[in-house]
Amino acid sequence: MKTFLDDNFLLHSPAAEELFHDHAKDLPIIDYHCHLPPEEIAVDRQFGNLTKIWLDGDHYKWRAMRANGVDESFCTGNAPDREKFKKWAGTVPMTIRNPLYHWTHLELKRYFGIDKRLDAGTADAIYDEVSEKLQSKEYSVRNLLRRMKVETLCTTDDPADSLENHTRLRNEKFDITVLPTWRPDKAMAVDDPATYRQYLEALAKAAGGTITHFNDLLHALSKRQDVFHDLGCRLSDHGLETFYADDFTEKEIISIFNKVIRGEKPSTPETSKFKTALLLYFAEMDYNKGWTQQFHVGAIRNNNSGMYHLLGPDKGFDSIGDFEMARPMSSFLNTLASKNKLAKTILYNLNPRDNELMATMAGNFNDGSVPGKMQYGSGWWFLDQKDGIEKQLNTLSNMGLLSRFVGMLTDSRSFLSYPRHEYFRRVLCNLIGNDVEKGELPADMDHLGKIVEGICYYNAKNYFGF
Which domain holds residue 124? Predict the structure, then answer.
């Protein structure tokens, strides 16, 4: 019987152990997609206690706590921080076989040197020990990133964001590269005219102008993209239910924009046309700048309307959707490819039924210009656990080139999430190592080691040009 969370955790063969310890374990981290707040890096925040750094904003934990019968006051509510933590600690033993169980104990061990299992009985002692450590500068945000060997991280930023914190970090020559990522979802969201017009005011202010016509919108977006690019941004990201690929004319888009400016809600077909036009515009902008575009598709959000109205978005009430993917994605990518305007692209699905669809669709649009130009992205959100990671890796192996994969990202709002890269690396090495042990791959550990090193670090570094 193996020991939980020992040095060979998740590694089930000698070949897997060799690949991880000799080739993956000590590589730096490039986290090319996360939701870490750049302000907290800029001010080098120190968290007051373990709840503040670990539970605030973590909808993964909130979902588990609710499922365990914990009242909302201990999740997003006003209960005392220690009591919130104790409710989480009491939930942890119930998360057996949920990735939260692994992540929780990996994070305690890697950041704070704690080997004890977290439960109701150890809660107070662990809370006190970690909260005390957090008072030391050694555990400030920047030092937590250094502790995990983070080399580059890309935050997620709206075109209307000031980027003042990125400017500050660049001017200070912070030793970890922190780059913005262009996330223009709000510029497409004409479904709610009142909110959209407020957004246009913010965007216009950031761009130093006014937006009264559709061309003003495009001009403002172009100006802001230049600012992002000058600060090192090399990726865009789009969070969509599915792709948009409707036929439209310029006259129609201008008419829809004017309708929204008047405060009128566009019809569903009009909304889809407008989003198609903007998404294609963004894609061509990315191509012209030499950026990589990312598409996170398939989430159905804010399902619990009562909790959405009470708490707002991103509180743990989103799930996997079942939207049509293949035809609109094919049409969208083909439109760009036909114009020779298809940038490097990463596709992420949330519904596992779409794994093979995504991997084969990506293969349709490789053109030989860049190794791995079209990427089937890592397991995302509900799929970033051991089973989901293995399925994504197997699908990519079967239908593409695993060797060209740009690897894992955190997609996280937490500064304690970086052991997820270790988790991914262990799963990857175990998958390849087991094939070696079964004679399904040659025991050429130098070659396989280079493949592993590429997936864990070098492929991303070369692909994004960091």
Answer: 47-137
**Dihedral sign from CA coordinates of 406, 410, 412, 414:** negative
Which residues lie across from 178 on neighbouring strands? 153
* Ramachandran area for residue 32 (φ above 0: left; ψ -120 to 50: alpha; else beta): alpha
pTM: 0.97
Integer Cα distance of 426 and 423 in angstroms = 5
64 and 193 share a domain?
Answer: no
Residue 90 confidence class, pLDDT cut points 50, 70, 90: very high
Q: In this structure, what DSSP letter does residue 188 have?
A: G
Give CA–CA dist 53/45, Å, rounded: 10
Sign of the alpha-carbon torsion through 226, 230, 232, 234: positive
What sign does the CA torsion over 360, 364, 369, 374 have? negative
Instruction: Give residues with Cβ within 8 angstroms of 108, minimum separation 6.
Output: 114, 116, 118, 126, 130
| pLDDT tens profile 100-127 | 999 999 999 999 999 999 999 999 999 9
User: Please, what's the largest Cα pairwise distance for the chain?
Assistant: 69
Query: How many CB atoms are located within 10 Å of the residue 359 CB?
Result: 22
**Of the candidates 249, 337, 343, which has an alpha carbon nearest to the alpha carbon of residue 293?**
343
For the record, the structure tokens of 413 come out as 């709002």
Question: Is 324 found in the same domain as 423?
Answer: yes
The alpha carbon of 219 is separated from its chain's Cα centroid by a whole number of angstroms, namely: 28
Which of 246, 260, 248, 249 shows the shortest CA–CA distance to 213?
Answer: 260
Residues 116 and 143 in one domain: no
9 domain residue, yes or no: no
Residue 1, pLDDT above cutoff 90:
no
Rounded-to-integer distance, Cα 154 and Cα 7, Å: 30
Is there a single domain that holds both residue 204 and residue 60?
no
- What's the CA dihedral at 310, 316, 322, 328 to 10 degrees? 80
Question: Do 229 and 116 sit in the same domain of this protein?
Answer: no
Do 206 and 345 lie in one domain? The reply is: yes
Do 164 and 206 lie in a common domain? yes
Identify whether residues 29 and 75 lie together within a single domain. Answer: no
